Amino acid sequence: MQFKVLFNMENSKQHLEALSGIKDLMEKSTKFISLSGLSGVIAGITALVGAFLADLRIEHYLNNTYTKTRLEMYLSENLMEKLALELFVIAISVLIISITFGILLTMRESKKNGQHIWGKNSKLLLLNLIVPLIAGGIFCLILMYHGLFYLLAPATLLFYGLALFNCGKYTLGEIKYLGVLEIILGLLSAVFIGKGLLFWAIGFGVLHIIYGGLMHFKYNNKPQNA
Amino acid sequence: MIEGLNKIFESRVRLGIMSVLMVNDEIDFNSLKELLNVTDGNLASHIAGLEKNEYIKVMKEFVGKKPKTSFAATALGKKAFQDHLTALENLLNQHN
Predict the structure, then answer these.
(1) How many CB pairs (< 8 A) connect A and B?
(2) In a designed cystine with A39, which of A21, A102, A144, A172 is the match (CB 3.0 to 4.6 A)?
(3) Residue B36, domain CATH
(4) Nearest-Cα residue of chain B relative to residue A5
(5) Residue A9's pLDDT is what?
(6) Residue A9 sits at the chain B interface (C-beta within 8 Å)
């Protein structure tokens, strides 16, 4: 009697292992699961540093442009161009640092998972990520062309959120929630014009750190299945 | 068959091959080998077993000058896998 119960327990442990093995293989063969959570944390920190620097520069230039005379008005226009250039440099630096770390850490992760970094699944993921992002990028350039700078933060957040949401099928599904949060932030920042940098810091900084951290602890502490 | 479980899926490799083919329309030999972490010979023998039972079909084509072999699950194979899964789940529900 006791022996039979033990036998059954042993059996159901085997069945459970078989089922979880099936699930793992199905996921691994259709999704690129090696996006590194740590790279999200690094991207978030970089974005926060970038937002802080941008804020400092904006403050610096604003203090310089409380000017009255015509000559000074003319000078301040030049200053605005300088500010725009500085902000652009900060933004590009943030982007380059984030992407570099993202690629490096994801390469490490995919080696660990035995997944090709440039395989069918990562290509699908990239394609689904990049189409909304390119559309968003061009849209932002058009906004700048029209001088609608106050719509840049909402537009970047919205398109980024849509891109992430779109990727849910091709990587860990949790990325959808991050996408939805970015979309909500984007819409809110379109309502609260003038707080763009703050929303930008929350969306690209804080959310990345929280999401990356959660994913890192959820998936990296999991014992590796043989 | 014991308790509805399919003998053919007793092997971890054969179960793995079918799991992958349930969610991918087709897959080539090398990708399958890497996913399952098995040797060429091991994979080939299990593939042959599944093919003999008509659970999978084997497709050979040339990419440039290289031959490429890919596999897809047949309707029969999908049904058998589904039944096996149901049996596994039933057994677990009974015991818990």
Answers:
(1) 52
(2) A102
(3) 1.10.10.10
(4) B95
(5) 66
(6) yes
- Tell me the mean pLDDT in the region A35-42: 92
Measured between CB atoms, which of A16, A30, A120 is closest to B23? Answer: A30
**B41 in helix, strand or coil?**
helix
Q: Determine contact, residues B19/A20, Cβ cutoff 8 Å.
A: no
Distance between CA atoms of residues A159 and A112, nearest Å: 31
Instruction: State yes or no: pLDDT of A188 exceeds 50.
Output: yes
Examine residue B71 and state whether it is found in any structural domain, yes or no. Answer: yes
From the list A224, A214, A213, the residue with the least C-alpha distance to A111 is: A224
B86 inside domain: yes
Give the model confidence (pLDDT) of B66-89 as tens digits.
888 999 999 999 999 999 999 988
Is residue A224 predicted with pLDDT exceeding 50?
no
Residue B1: pLDDT over 90: no
Inter-chain touch B95–A16, beta carbons under 8 Å: no
Residue of A4, A15, A33, A110 to mutate, interface with B, max B Cβ within 10 Å: A15
Complex ipTM more than 0.90, yes or no = no
Q: Cα–Cα distance between A186 and A122 in angstroms, integer? A: 27
Q: Largest Cα–Cα distance in chain A?
A: 99
User: Taking a contact as any Cβ pair under 8 Å apart, which residues of chain A between 103 and 122 contact chain B?
Assistant: 114, 116, 119-120
Testing the interface with A: which of B30, B33, B95, B96 to mutate, by most A Cβ within 10 A? Answer: B95
Tell me which residue range forms the domain holding B13: 7-90
